[in-house]
Amino acid sequence: MSALRFPNLPPSEPQGSDLLAQERANTTFSIHEVSTFLYGEVYLERQERLLPMIENEPAFDKSNRYFRGRTERFAAALRKDHALVKLSKEFKWSPDEYLHAESLIDEAGPFGLHRGMFMPTLASQSTDEQLERFLRPAQRYEIIGCYAQTELGHGSNVQGIETTATYIPETNQFELHTPYLTASKWWIGGLGKAANHAVVMARLITNGKDYGPHALCVPIRSMEDHTLLPGVMAGDIGPKFGYNTTDNGCMWFDHYRVPHISLLAKYSSVKPGSGEYVKPPNAKLSYGTMVLVRASLVGAARHGMAKAVTIATRYSAIRRQFVDKDAPKSLGKQIVETPVLDYSTQQYRLFPIIAAAYACFFTSKEMMRLYHLNMKNMETGDFSLLADVHASSSGLKSLTTTMAASAIEECRRACGGHGFSVFSGLPLLLQDYVPNVTWEGDNYMITQQTGRYLFKSFRELVAKRTSGKFSANQINNPTLAYMNTYLENPTLKCPATSASQFHNPELQLAAFGHRAASLVAQIVHALDVKKRTWNSMLVDIYNVSVAHCQLIMVQNFILGIRGEMPQPEGVQPTVLSAASKEALTDLSDLFAMHTIHKQPGEFLTSGYLDAKQISLLGEAVMNVMEKKVRPNAIGFVDAFAFPDYLLNSAIGAFDGRAYERYTEMATREPLNKTEVVEGYEQYIRPYTNPRGLKGHLLQARI
């Protein structure tokens, strides 16, 4: 029992629960309707069904999560993953049910990469024989895998990896080898302790020729006792800034031989005996898993931002500090302090994050639709979508994960001192989220893939326009559409003369499109005419990727609210009521206008906007935050439908009892189990009570 007991003190007035209840009463739209619009009834019903099951499973208990050290956290995560698989088998969960349960538990674990990378890679790159040999046992968790691509010396540059897989015709095997220290597999989730198999990316060498990185599925630990197999050395890489519930590992191969079937051969293969290499029909076919993960990361960015801003917005609504000199000074004789959420600076910090989370929702939904459509098309030999989907997923991964990492930290800071407490839920959320900006491609380097696609598209469009055989009706690609609009009128000017005109979505789209196309044109000119080096243009290339992807996000947000986004096959768009549509349009306006207002330079240099219009835009931003978003702020974050179990936050719970929950959590701190700290006699008492110490020692001798 803790020596520190919950104090028997009355709460101050007004209470947090009353404040949030009043906020919800002021909401102008149906929170349930917007939640349903975002997720669908099936999702919400599934969450309601799964949540009690998850909360009542001891392996998923979160009450001690914030008090554990790394070793304890990993042990708990291993237990959690085991229980999750067990429940999924017992209740025959669908993949969606499993993922939903996993998101509610909200803690990375040693089996995460098994589902997130290992199995998707097998599913997309295996032959039928390999599906039976590797994927089916993986789905039953008879084998547990990881995805071993990153090396000590190479991360984003996949083509530079050094691990080799050499075909041995005499035995019809591949020999995996780590030739240099920098070729060590590193940062591989699940590899440290849990996985017994790995999809290894290695340089395929056959008949003396290097064919670059290819995927092989190989056993790394014994299926009998989990010891490492001869020729394999592996272990955990140690504690990290976050994500410490996952056993990120390292691995070396010493001329380790695996059978011919190990090479995933759906698209490319090596003929047994002769070692002849059979190349894929398209060099980028293996990008499928990469696109899936990057598209998924856009959704994860939304999830991270939404959780953080839910906590920060609820807390800001109940936290009161100082008295606004322009507000009523008192209520009777009691001084009424101002809710932090009423300060315009707090609104400027938090409301754009709410808007960005919604924007990420629509874009992640569209990216997943495009991913599945592209995979379906590739099965029939149609690769027309691949380049666009790959480029967009790369740029959006960079943009949205950067946005989310920054947003989570901003939310933590916006909660003041209590945001520094782990009990807020924000520090651990930040620590576990920030790896997203690095894995699956460093956020600065990865944008080069987006840039190359944009420049190629621009050059091809210019060539078509100058050929004399071009018609705008031939354009069915949004990227080419905004570039063509720019080429039609490169000196286009924004017609807005008042702040209210910036609420026009067509004007917003024109601003983002003109700015993006202008940047593309400038870079292509610099590369092709001025002969600037690619390296000298990397900052500009990063900026043009951001511009292109911000346009995508604004466009998806607008179309999503209108119900005009393309839908997956067989899915009908949801129609919003007028009140909900108006409320979400306010967020869409804020996202577009705030993005311009925060980074006006490129909109100015493109020539579309001038300095006076940027000033008007600032007025529009402040007005929509104060008049439109503020009354609905709690409603907007409630619509994310995060249960308290998921948030695990003392200050961000639905009922608003922040101070009571915070104090209760403090009483459970292990240091408070004793009234006098261990070590007092050795380290404190000799200074503070030396006479008492002598008497104590004398008494002990007697």
From TrEMBL:
Coiled coil: none annotated. Keywords: FAD, Fatty acid metabolism, Flavoprotein, Lipid metabolism, Oxidoreductase, Peroxisome. Pfam families: ACOX, ACOX_C_alpha1, Acyl-CoA_dh_M, Acyl-CoA_ox_N. Residues 504-688 form the Acyl-CoA oxidase C-terminal domain. Its cofactor is FAD. Its main location: other. Residues 287-454 form the Acyl-CoA oxidase C-alpha1 domain. InterPro entries: ACOX_C_alpha1 (IPR055060), Acyl-CoA_ox_N (IPR029320), Acyl-CoA_Oxase/DH_mid-dom (IPR006091), Acyl-CoA_Oxase/DH_mid-dom_sf (IPR046373), Acyl-CoA_oxidase (IPR012258), Acyl-CoA_oxidase_C (IPR002655), AcylCo_DH-like_C (IPR036250), AcylCoA_DH/ox_N_sf (IPR037069). Residues 146-254 form the Acyl-CoA oxidase/dehydrogenase middle domain. It is found in: Peroxisome. It comes from the Eukaryota. Belongs to the acyl-CoA oxidase family. This is Acyl-coenzyme A oxidase. The lineage of its organism: Eukaryota, Fungi, Fungi incertae sedis, Mucoromycota, Mortierellomycotina.
